Fold this protein.
Amino acid sequence: MLSDPGYADGTTSETMGRTEGDGSSELPIWEPGSLDAALATVSRRALQYEHQIQDLEAKLTLDLSNFRAIENLLQEVFAGLQQTQRRADIALSSTVPHISHSLDEDLMALHELDSQLPVILQQVRHIKRVYDHGRAKAHDLINALEWMNTPISLRLRTIIFTPNAPVSTRWKALVRTAFAIVFLVCIWIAWITLRGAVRAHRQRLVWGERLMS
């Protein structure tokens, strides 16, 4: 790259050709202008080549740094993939069987609950019936206690004149019949008493007239 052989050979051949064409048997004559032009051309080309080499070195340096960055990134990605693969292997070897076993146990428990659900539902219905019966019994006992704490006159009045007395129908009929009989007897006694009073009043009037006469 320091000299251009083709250019020098061409210049030398041209000079020798001119010398031979002249028919002279002397040595070739070197022209100073041609040599300076050749040196200038070689210098320009060497400078261009040097600039191109520098540009190429800069590009190679940039590409090398980019390649190193890409290599580091790929190594990080590869390390992450290896770590993820190890985690996946651990999960496949331990977590997945544990989850599968837990799911099997849950399915067995669900099957047992499915088989026991009708029995439990029947028991709940029975408990509800017992609860309702107990609540009704407690309500009846409360009513009976309140009825027993009620005065006898109020109880008789409730039995006779209202249908809300907490007693049996037979007892209601018996008490009402007794009340009717007593009421009729009272009316009969009152009637007899009134009749006797009227009769006594009439007799008193008669005896008074006799005494006055």
